[in-house]
């Protein structure tokens, strides 16, 4: 590694306390005690990980939802810094009991509780990814670890009775790099010793690792797997539903395939959709319809509404030079397409803390250094002309329609993820220490966890 840089394994700085004491109801200690392990199940996890799949029990479930009729206000938002000098935070997950969990791509899982944060575990199997120092002026597109490392995080729906936190990370094997999803027991004396592989052998590379995981409204674990093949050395494997490359997976909490998953001819039973390039955002419309964001080649970034079993075209169709168009194919086209968002984590915001953003898909923008508010509807007439962009080309998704508006340009830098807390507040993390930030980033206080507010 170049001198002057440092990684979490080389320097464990004490980052101090978070100013989170004002987050009502989401950081208090749970009164529930974690359940005692049951008899070890066949999959080796010593807890009953089974969950209900009744989507009607989801507290945001609404089959009669409608999209806002106007674009969100620009310049109407405040930024409250809750944590500074993090090392490329990648994901945020809120536990049902109130704790906040964060991942740093350099290899640390943090928990936030009672206004402070502490390390839960640093899985030794994670590749040694690197972060530039705060305030660095170095422009290094390829830092150690590339885009891999400790990425997504999700909390078991019955936490803390089932005290499992799931992570998606890149690791080295005898056959090279791979991505895997692992569940950690947060009550173990050493959580790294109390861990179980949920999904393994997801293709990995320096780029295109995907990495977002989350429990959806019906309590399935969803996994956004990148194609792991940025040079397209093996395009047939990406297009093959029998592999895990470039797929959206849906599994039970123990990693098994749900019986309700689509039956794709020749497909792995864990695959929900295929033909994806580098998906990094997972969210749901209020009626439970899944929606994702994914990076395109030379532009062609996409927002896709998912239909079970469908092929989304990669590596053949994309709205980019050198690739086939969607028109005239059986591939499922996107609902929104943009040349340079570099979309990452997203959330469909239903909270009341930031009214102008309610009912919209909020997407973290990396190279665009912004938050993108995407208004999605099944009634295109609701998309007013005051949005910056209307995504209404005749080759796009015919059932859903979208318009988009950029927010907070160059105020946070590279926005890696946007998340809604159980209190209806809106949170985001930045990725300014990954060597790719510009326009004054990283600052001496990067990276950050922030709360977005209305002015």
UniProtKB/TrEMBL annotation:
Top-rank lineage group of the source organism: Archaea
Xref: InterPro entries: 6-blade_b-propeller_TolB-like (IPR011042), Glc/Sorbosone_DH (IPR012938), Quinoprot_gluc/sorb_DH_b-prop (IPR011041), TAT_signal (IPR006311)
Pfam family, one: GSDH
Ranges for domain Glucose/Sorbosone dehydrogenase: 86-436
SUPFAM superfamilies noted in UniProt: Soluble quinoprotein glucose dehydrogenase
Entries under PANTHER family matching the protein: HEDGEHOG-INTERACTING PROTEIN (PTHR19328), HIPL1 PROTEIN (PTHR19328:SF13)
Protein name: Glucose/arabinose dehydrogenase, beta-propeller fold
Taxonomic placement: Archaea, Methanobacteriati, Methanobacteriota, Stenosarchaea group, Halobacteria
């Amino acid at each position: 590694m170049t001198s002057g840089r440092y990684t979490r394994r080389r320097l464990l700085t004490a980052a101090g306390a978070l100013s989170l004491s004002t987050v009502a109801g989401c950081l208090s200690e749970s009164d529930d005690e974690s359940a005692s392990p049951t008899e070890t199940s066949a999959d080796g996890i010593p807890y009953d990980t089974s969950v209900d799949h009744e989507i009607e029990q989801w507290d945001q479930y609404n089959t009669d939802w409608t999209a806002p009729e106007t674009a969100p206000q620009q310049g109407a938002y405040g930024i409250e810094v809750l944590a500074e000098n993090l090392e490329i935070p990648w994901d945020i997950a809120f536990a049902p009991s109130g704790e906040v969990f964060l991942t740093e791509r350099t290899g640390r899982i943090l928990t936030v509780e009672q206004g402070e944060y502490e390390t839960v575990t640093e899985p030794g199997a994670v590749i040694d990814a690197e972060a530039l120092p705060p305030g660095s002026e170095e422009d290094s597109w390829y830092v150690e670890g590339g885009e891999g490392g400790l990425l997504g995080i999700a909390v078991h729906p019955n936490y803390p009775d089932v005290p499992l936190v799931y992570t998606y990370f890149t690791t080295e094997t005898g056959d090279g790099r791979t991505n895997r999803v692992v569940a950690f027991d947060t009550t173990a004396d050493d959580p790294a010793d109390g861990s179980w592989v949920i999904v393994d052998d997801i293709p990995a590379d320096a780029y295109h690792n995907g990495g977002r995981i989350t429990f959806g409204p019906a309590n399935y674990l969803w996994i956004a797997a990148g194609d792991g093949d940025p040079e397209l050395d093996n395009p047939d494997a990406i297009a093959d539903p029998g592999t895990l490359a470039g797929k959206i997976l849906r599994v039970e909490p123990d990693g098994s395939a749900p019986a309700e998953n689509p039956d794709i001819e020749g497909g792995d039973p864990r695959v929900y959709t295929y033909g994806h390039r580098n998906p990094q955002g997972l969210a749901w419309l209020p009626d439970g319809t899944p929606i994702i964001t994914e990076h395109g080649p030379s532009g062609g970034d996409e927002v896709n509404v998912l239909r079970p079993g469908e092929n989304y075209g990669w590596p053949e169709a994309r709205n980019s030079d050198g690739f086939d168009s969607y028109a005239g194919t059986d591939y499922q086209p996107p609902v929104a397409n943009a040349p340079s968002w570099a979309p990452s984590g997203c959330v469909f915001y239903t909270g009341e803390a930031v009214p102008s953003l309610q009912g919209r898909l909020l997407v973290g923008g990396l190279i665009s250094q912004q938050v993108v508010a995407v208004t999605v509807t099944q009634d295109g007439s609701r998309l007013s002309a005051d949005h910056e962009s209307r995504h209404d080309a005749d080759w796009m998704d015919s059932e859903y329609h979208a318009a988009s508006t950029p927010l907070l340009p160059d105020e946070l830098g590279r926005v890696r993820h946007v998340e809604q807390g159980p209190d209806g507040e809106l949170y985001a993390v930045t990725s300014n220490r990954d060597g790719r930030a510009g326009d004054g980033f990283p600052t001496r206080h990067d990276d950050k966890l922030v709360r977005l507010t209305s002015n």
